[in-house]
Amino acid sequence: MITVTDLRNGAAFTENNQIFKVLKYEFTKMGRGTATIKVKIKNLRNGSIIEKSFISGAKVQEIFLDKKEVQYLYKDKNDYVFMEPRTFEQFSVDQDKMGEEKKYLQEGIEVNLLMYQNEALSLELPIKMDFKVKETDPGVKGNSATNIYKDAMLENGVHLRVPLFVQEGDIVRIDTRTGEYVERVGN
Fold it and tell me: How far apart, in whole angstroms, are the C-alpha atoms of residue 141 and residue 157?
């Protein structure tokens, strides 16, 4: 058991037979009252994200997640098929375990699979990934004095906002944590 003041971003703990990963940690102390710890956590078994408050001194059961480096191969009906690169062992993970990360999977990409007691819980993607712009409106000449954005659709079906100079066929880098445009890397 650890106190909630020892939790940090990325830490994992279990409570009520559920496994949570801390996404955001905030410590608040108001005057003479007790301190409160607010955390934004993701339930790794069902993918829901909730905010929870603890009083200072509360305890949770800390757990350590194993990271297994795997290569994504393909989607098969309701499962995603991965391969262990060293042993070439293939295994599938139910799509419900994937959460939002599944929309960024590209065939052949290497990711970390977070596991607890041989149970696949979640994916850990590279922070930045490159995708080809499939659809976007053409930029209007002269509208580049300020940062103006337009809608675009990537090859994986993800919609996001990109600067006016980005055209169809360009390769853009996006942040997989937020789903936002970072930079254009080529065409």
Answer: 27
CB atoms within 10 A of CB 116: 17
Q: What is the DSSP letter of 145?
A: S
Entry pTM: 0.71
Domain count of the fold of the chain: 3
Long-range contacts of range 73-81, CB-CB < 8 Å, 24 or more positions apart? 73/107, 73/108, 74/107, 75/105, 80/105
Do 141 and 181 reside in the same domain of the chain?
yes
Same domain, 182 and 146: yes
Distance CA 83, CA 91 (A): 6
Could you read off the pLDDT of 53-75 as tens digits, one per residue? Answer: 888 888 999 898 898 999 999 98
Asked if 164 and 176 sit in the same domain, the reply is yes
Q: Which domain holds residue 159?
A: 128-186
Taken in order 4, 43, 117, 99, the sign of the CA dihedral is negative
User: pLDDT of 154-181, one tens digit each?
Assistant: 998 899 999 888 889 999 999 988 889 9
Separation of alpha carbons 184 and 187, rounded Å:
8
157 and 173: one domain? Answer: yes
CATH number, domain at 108? 2.40.50.140
**96 phi and psi, to 5 degrees?**
-65, -25
